[in-house]
Structures are given as C-alpha cells and as structure tokens.
Amino acid sequence: MKEDRQQSVKERRKHHRLIDRSIAVLGAGNMGTALMKGIINAELTPRMKITACGVHLDKLQILSKQWGVKHTLNLLEAVEASEVILLCVKPQTLPKVLAEIKRAVRNDHLLISIAAGMKISYLQTVVDKKLAIVRSMPNIASTVDEGATAVSFGEFVSEEQQRIAISIFEAVGEVVVVAEEQLDAVTGLSGSGPAYIYMVIEALIDGGVKMGLSREISTKLAIQTVLGSAKLVKSSGLHPAILRDQVTTPGGTAINAIHELESHGLRSMLINAVATATRRSEELSKVISKS
Questions:
Q1: How many angstroms separate the first and last alpha carbons of the chain?
Q2: pTM, whole model, 2 decimals?
Q3: pLDDT confidence bin for 9, thresholds 50/70/90
C-alpha cells in the first residue's frame, strides 16, 4: 500500500516545474510542515531558500536539521527574506500575524493563505497593499501527499504566480481552481471531509468486531476497503452509483445493507454534514473579519 502511494506521488511529481523562489512558511504545524516537505520532495525550489517560522524553537531546529531548511522565530525576518509567503496559521491567529508582518510585506510578494474562511478582501485590507493573494483550502491528507486542495486567485495574481501556487499544492495532492465564493463549500466537503470518512472507517471496524472479527483484522479490512473503493472511483472514471451497482446483486448481501443505510438516512446525513460545515465556515469568516 505504502509503495503504491509512493509510486503514485512519484509519477505526479514528474510533471512539476521548478519555481525557484525563496519561501517563508509561517506556521510550522501539520499543514505548514506538509507543504514544506512537498516543496522539497518535488524539488520545486532549493531547500536553503525555504525558511520555517513558528513559535517552538525545538521543533524548528528539528525541521531544520532533518530537511536542511532555515528557521527563525522572527516573522519579520522570515517575510523579508522571502518572495512567497505561505500563511499556515489558524484563522483565529491570522489577524495578529498579519498585523505583525504588514510592514515587511512588499508589493512583489505572493501571499498564499490556507486559513479557513478568511477572504481575500480581508487579507488585502489588512496588508493595505496591491498584493498578489491566493486563498486556498487544503485538507489533512496533504500530510501523506494525497491532499485535496482548492485555490482561488486575488485580483493582482499574475499567471506565473498562479502557476507557483498550483505547483506547491500539486506537490501534496490534487488541486482544483474555484471562484472564491465556492471555498466555504470546499471547506465543508474536502476540508472537513476526512473527519466524516474517519467516522465511517471507525463504524466499519466496529461492525466487523460486532460480527466476530478481531479488531486488528477488522481494522485492516475496513481501511483497505475505503482506500480501494476510492482508488477505483478515481481510476475508472465511473460514477460511484455505477460501481455500487456492480457489487449489488439481486437479493444479495449488499442490497440488503444498502436498504438499511438508506432507511437510516446515511445519504442525507452526509449531505447535511457538508452543508452544516459550509455554513460554519461562512460564520467564522464573518466573526473573525469583524474582530
């Protein structure tokens, strides 16, 4: 399984183009670190052109030693030395970080934000410059190079800067370009989506245990079932309903199980989950923007 994933990532990286820019990663948490590793592994820019910035010196030192990047606790120092700013901090922290780096931000900077719900217009207002801003919504699967990311471009983003942003996120998964007003829906679907899938996997495991399988075997089968099913949808290009019908024989086990799922509203629950998460993303955007 691991070897297949590594091969898939390797094939995808053959198409990457060198961006050769100095990059500041502000926020060396899970997503910031994942993007940094993706950039390095895809050889998008020399690793010594990357500066990791965070609040924990010990973690930064480990990253620096392991990946050969620069590190600093000083936001201004990181921004001043960069051409591309990867803003990988939490939405609640974003206003404070923007206020701190504002005087170091230049008109030629490319600012890429992964903060959920934070609109380009808000970022533009805070930095108070005609800045190239990309708003993105990656998900946690980016940490294993299988992420799903949507990006939207601000008014001042050039075609070359668009290519740079797309290349960075392609280094850790699949990328789509959407209108900014669709990003809240992206947050509800793929941004929060892994949480829904983890619950499905957990439930399948418990179902196997209930019916007599060991937890170890049930876990292995549940994980591979979800992984294999997703891979088949992607590789075949077929609608999921067609693939579902292929394993649903008349009077068989699958059709009886599907009837049970439908009677308890599985489909409606998942649709409503996406809608609820989308609305919450919209609410967070309004709350933080007013703070």
A1: 46
A2: 0.89
A3: low
